[in-house]
Each structure stands twice: as C-alpha cells, then as structure tokens.
# Entry
Amino acid sequence: MAELLPDRSLLQIGSSGIYLGDGFTVIGRLQFQHESGLWNSWHLLFDHGKTGWLSEASGNYSLSFQVNEGLPDLPLERYVPDLSVPVNGQRMSVIRVETAKCIAGQGELSAAVPVGHTLHFVELAVAQTYASLEFDGAKPTLYMGQAVELTALHLQNLRDLEQSAIQISSRQLQCPACGGNLNFRLQQALTITCPHCATVLDSRNDKLAILLKQSNKLQPLNRLPIPLGSIGRFERATFTVIGYLRRSTRASGLLHYWEEYLLHHPGYGFRWLVCSQGHWNLLKPILKAPSISKGYTGDTIAMLEGKTYRHFANYKAKIDRVAGEFYWRIKVEDSASLEDYIAPPYLLNKELQGKEINWSQGEYLQPEQVNDAFEGKLLLTPPKGVFANQPCPYEPSVDAWLKNTLLFVVLVIVLQCWFVFESRQEVVFSKVMEVSAVDSSDWSNYRTLNPESANLESEPFEIHSNHGNVVIDIDGNLDNSWLFSSISLVNLQNGLTYSSSREISDYSGYDGGEYWRENDSHTDVVFSAVPPGRYQLQVEAESERSYGSVNARKTQYLRVIANVPLWQNFWFVLVFLLIGPALFYYFRHHFEQQRWAESDHPMNNT
# Structure
C-alpha cells in the first residue's frame, strides 16, 4: 500500500468522538489528491455497528453515510455547478465537480483500497444537508450527511500539535528564481510566494516550478498592514496569517481593490480576513449551501440556519497580487464570479471558479476588534463610506426609541382619556354681544376718528371645577369687517383676573368674476388652572365703522365653558415624543441609502 503524504490533520486512527449521541472510533483512512490539494476520508465505526465517513478537506469537515436509494439518474457529464438535482427526496445544488486520485490507505476499510484509481466526485448541498456522488464507473455511490465542526464531535486521542509543528517546520526549500530559503508554515501548501523576490511558485512537490514573477510588487508585499506570520486570536483560537491576496473588480469604469488574508489553525481550519476601504470581515468557508428564492418584495434572498440574507451584488474579480502560502494552486490574473448576500452584520459570499462553488459565511468586524485580535500591533486605516454588511449604528437607537415612545404614547393616551372622562365641560355663561352699524346718511352721528365699540359685563356665575381649564368660546357673525375684543375673567371674591385678547374677521367679494371668502370668525381663549369661585366676564369690543345699510350689524356669540379637556397639549406631547424616533429613522434611512448605493439594488432617494 502506498505511503501516506504528510499533512496537518488532527485526526488519527484511534481517535474517538460522539455524533448525534452515538460514539464512534476512527478505524481507517483514505487519502486523495486533487488539483486543489489533499483530502482525507476517515473511516468511522459507531458503537451500534454502523460505519460512516468523516471527510476532511481544506479545514472543512463533513460526516456522511452510504445511501442506496434516491440516486439521481444523470450521467457525470451533466453535472455543473449550481445545477438543482433531486437527491433522496429533496432538491440539492451542485457545489463542486472534481477529479481525484486515491494515493494511499490506512487501517480498516470497508472495501479494497482503490490506490492509483482516479475517481470523479460531485458534491451537493442544501441548508445543513451535504451529499457526495462518487463515480467509479457508470453508476455512482451516494453518501449523505452534513457539514460538521470538529468541536461539536467531542474528539479525543488527537494528534499532538507540537509534533505536527515540528514536522511542518522541517520542510525547507530554495526559491529557483533567487535561491532564497523558503520556510513553509502550511504542510499541504500548493502555492508559495518567495519572500525575497515575490516569485509565485508551484509547491506541489519539492521541485518548485515558477508560476509568475512579480518582483515589481516586492516592496508593497513586504509592507503589508498585517505581516505574514502574524498571530491573531479569533473564535477563541489563535490563527496564523499564512497568505495574502489583493483582488480587484471593475464597476462603472473604475477599479475597486480589496485585500484578503488567509488564516490557518490546525483544528479550526482556514479563515479569510478581508479588508475593503478600511472595513473588515472574518469569513469562514462552509460546505453548507443556502436556499435561494424570491422574497415577497421580488428581491432574491438566501436562507441559511434560520437567517435571511438579501442579495447585494454580483461581480467578477481577479487576483493581482499574491504573497505567502495557499492550499490550492493560485496565480495572478485568476478570476472568479462572486455574489454577496447580506444580513448585517453577517454576509454570505458565493464564489464560482471553473467547476467549483465555494460558499463563505462572514461577520463584520470593527477595526478595533481586528487590532485587538493581533494584540494592538497593527496600524489600520479608518473605514471609508458604508460597507455592504456594516451594522447600522442607528438600528438599536431606533428600536429603543420606538419601544420607549410606544410606552409613553400609551401612557399619554390613558391620561388624556382620564382627563376627558373627568371633565364636566359645563357652560356657565353665554350671551350674544352686538355692535350696531351707523347709517351713513345720518351725518349728525358721523364720527370720522372714533371706531365703533361696545362693552359687556356679565352677570356673576359660578365655576365649580377644581383648578380646571376655562374656555371663552367666540363665534362671530360679520360681513366684510373685523372685531377686536379685550377679554377679562374676574374673580369677584379676591379680584384675581385672567386677561387676553382676540380678533375675528370675515371678508368676501368677487375678483375677476370669481367669488372669494376669507373667514376667520371663530376663536377661543383658554385660561388654565382656574380655581373655583364666583366670576364675571368683562369684554371690550371695537371695530371699524361700517358705511351702508342700517341693518349692517356685527355680533359675536360668547360662551364660558368650565372644566374643558385640552387636546392641544395632548397633540404637542405626541409630536414631541415622535421627534426622537423620526430623527433616528431619518439617519437610518440615509445610512441604508449609502449602503445600497454600491449594490445592484440602489434605493430611491425619495
């Protein structure tokens, strides 16, 4: 049996764990080699006698079992990425079509080891379900299960990390372009960039092949914001920065750049730390595929793990700078088609390259969080603009204001209802006050300098309410004139006086054959917190002189109403309470406009 190639897997024969409450032990292993590197298929024996396979590739893990029913009836050549295929009673999307060679086996296996055989694999996924079709002839073998995290399997008897580190550090080669020493951090690296001359090298074997010379980019690659080899703490584990990419895309005739740092941890696998215009995201490659559908508003949405992501943008990107080590064969000018879906602060990224779809799930990080992860050793530029999945800073404020405002609005409504219920609204005095016109033909009564006037002193009346509101209601009957009144409410027991004044008017006529009218003949005066007692209403009214008919009269109907609920205060308080939520809603709306302005679905400015 061929010898296994060294790798950095934490698993080994004899490792044990628990899956869905059932214990298992690793009893065997198959090792495959494909274009993107190595992967291991670990043979598991469960306590109840069932066997399964734990696949490990590029830091991702899936646990599956052979299924003899529900195989799709399609030939291998029909499978392409994104194809929807019925598999064992459910539709799944093709995420990868690849060819691999079995290079070694170890331990107890369920069948003869196909060492040296080239097999074809089709990987499919939907939500939490993962499936793999293995073609070794016309009819495939189906394996179904789900993507898993090593931490969820409660593994024991793992390989010694320190010993793994010793093995990795022992791999040292020389750059064929400049002769400089190359120290590998990643045992299974298929691409490495020389730190001395920036040449990109194919490291699939010890005879390094030159993929690209980029000596003109050596200086910027040696001054990365996060140097290669840096140690950062994410997800309660320490990751090592082993690779760097700069990517670009063209939109509206302009080139947009962003940087991607490849992080690695022996147990947690790989992560991508992505920076665009000072905005940071930590992305994790996943084997899960979201369910894509149309939302009720017609936009495209992706559902994964109970969270809804909205489609943000489709774009093409290419690599224009490379540094460090990578677990696949990479080169400058490699291009891919990408899609972003967002549910701030989370993001789903879909990358299609060749016959392979890779999904990544990310979360937005503040620059301070990134700097803290590297123990404050970084000098990061402040973010510019609004990023796709950047959390809206006004979202919590809007929600908090709405909750508090709703509470206060309910309280104000209850209080107003109580005031209305308790109010007696008693009319304690009413009278029509008249100012008579003077016949213009009676010149003996003509006074050119003095206006018409009238006075009123009411009969005493009682106000019984305890410091309630008193309204003086005025309703005028005028004809092309005005009437000004000085009003006093006098307490006859202690002389306490409430005073105010009001003017009413009513004008009408014809202009160009069209009738018009300006009627402002009704008003009122409100006196608040008037104590009970015996009162008198005093009114002094005056107006312009009227010339014309002796029947031209000016009257106003006066009413004194005690204990009246005031609605003006109620509406004022409601408007005041809504100012805070309205302001935060405006700022949030403006923030979202900036976010979606960079997407395929910009918001209207209205």
